[in-house]
Design a protein that fits this description.
Elements lengths: L1 H15 L9 H12 L2 E6 L14 H15 L1 E5 L11 E6 H10 L6 H4 L3 H5 L2 H4 L3 E2 L2 E2 L2 E2 L4 E2 L2 E5 H6 L8 H13 L17 H6 L10 E4 L4 E4 L6 H13 L6 H4 L1 H8 L6 E4 L3 H12 L4 H6 L1 H4 L3 E4 L11 E2 L2 E4 L7 H4 L1
Parallel strand pairs: 1-2, 1-3
Antiparallel strand pairs: 3-14, 4-5, 6-14, 7-13, 8-11, 8-12, 9-10
Helix pairs in contact: 1-3
Length: 345
């Protein structure tokens, strides 16, 4: 089973490196790789795929097994490591998010990939939208990590709204008003209306027609049909004022900035009035996690219908500012000092 997993991971990275081939030509392709790239050493600055669960701890056995398999099959020595040095000291593949890709491309710390990808059949067979995801000033600066898309939605605690005499908000202004009422109605219990990773409240961004990709400010904007930095638009001024009001009025847990992963985990346990995650996870995770912390499983089952309504969808999007899926904001780049860049690609 583990060997199959190793092979799957190897195949995925082979695609990322654009070295894939048709199954019937695999043996021929492998021999070509072995003869051309034997003893090629590639540092891969991303260890996130080898983390144990949601922890920061790495599965070093998995890293060793995968590296051994790739060296045996392709003759390429991969060294999986976390980035610790400045980018101008790095040599090899580096995984960066969209914001850093744009920044480093503009500062001259990355190699443009156009020359190395121009005649690559696999790359040229991919959809143009995918290939141009990290195009800046007419050059390709990164190979997208995946085609994965995510949809971040918000859900709100209806029991807290009811206790505070509030209706389901339809606008950001109504949301702020409801939040103040909910926090003030805590009955001695310290309540926060919002807790999000890094203080980035997706629903507020959406209300102003600004978009995030995970926690990256550079994301695809469906209203203009291209990637942009959300903070670069004029609407960002009003957004920042709204976010400042959230912080200063005590509606947002400031641990969002200092302990983002802890805050996100707590939001999935019903700790806040609003939870932002994938569709259904608030309704069928946060609500039930909160209930299980206060009653036994038998009572939870008995009150299933009631508990499943603790969190209901909150939607501040509109026809003018639609909700959109987020593309994977990460891509593989080549630092400017990379040796044998053509072979690495």
């Amino acid at each position: 089973m583990f060997q199959k997993w190793i092979r799957s991971v190897a195949l995925l990275l082979s695609v990322v490196l654009l070295a894939g081939c048709a199954k019937q030509e695999e043996k021929k392709f492998a021999n070509t790789i072995l003869s051309r790239y034997n003893n090629l050493h590639i540092d891969v600055y991303t260890a996130e795929s080898f983390r144990i669960g949601d922890s920061a701890q790495l599965d070093h056995n998995a890293i060793a097994s995968w590296s051994e398999y790739m060296q045996e099959k392709y003759g390429i020595v991969f060294d999986i490591r976390r980035q610790s040095d400045a980018i101008d000291r790095l040599n090899g593949l580096l995984l960066l998010d969209a914001g850093n890709i744009v920044s480093y491309a503009e500062s001259g710390d990355l190699l443009p990939l156009d020359e190395y990808l121009a005649d690559n059949k696999v790359w040229n067979s991919l959809p143009e939208e995918f290939r141009k995801r990290f195009e800046v000033n007419g050059h390709i600066w990164a190979v997208p990590r995946s085609t994965q898309t995510t949809l971040t939605v918000a859900s709100i605690r209806t029991d807290w709204l009811k206790e505070a005499g509030q209706q389901l908000p339809q606008t950001l202004e109504q949301l702020m008003s409801a939040g103040r009422a909910v926090v003030q109605n805590g009955s001695g219990e310290k309540r926060y209306f919002v807790g999000t990773k890094n203080g980035l409240f997706h629903e507020a961004f959406t209300a102003y027609g600004l978009y995030l990709s995970g926690t990256s400010l550079i994301a695809y904007n469906p209203t203009i049909g291209k990637f942009e930095n959300a903070i670069s638009r004029p609407e960002a001024i009003d957004l920042l004022r709204s976010l400042e009001e959230l912080y200063s009025s005590g509606l947002m847990d400031l641990d969002s900035f200092f302990y983002p992963d802890k805050v996100y985990a707590n939001s999935l346990k019903g700790a806040y009035g609003i939870v932002e995650t994938t569709p259904g996870q608030a309704k069928y995770s946060a609500g039930f996690e909160w209930a299980l912390s206060r009653m036994d499983s038998a009572e939870v089952l008995q009150r299933y219908d009631e508990i499943s309504k603790i969190y209901e969808p909150l939607d501040l999007s509109s026809k003018e500012h639609p909700r959109t899926y987020s593309d994977d904001p990460y891509g593989y780049v080549l630092p400017a000092n990379t040796e044998r860049p053509g072979d690495v690609v």
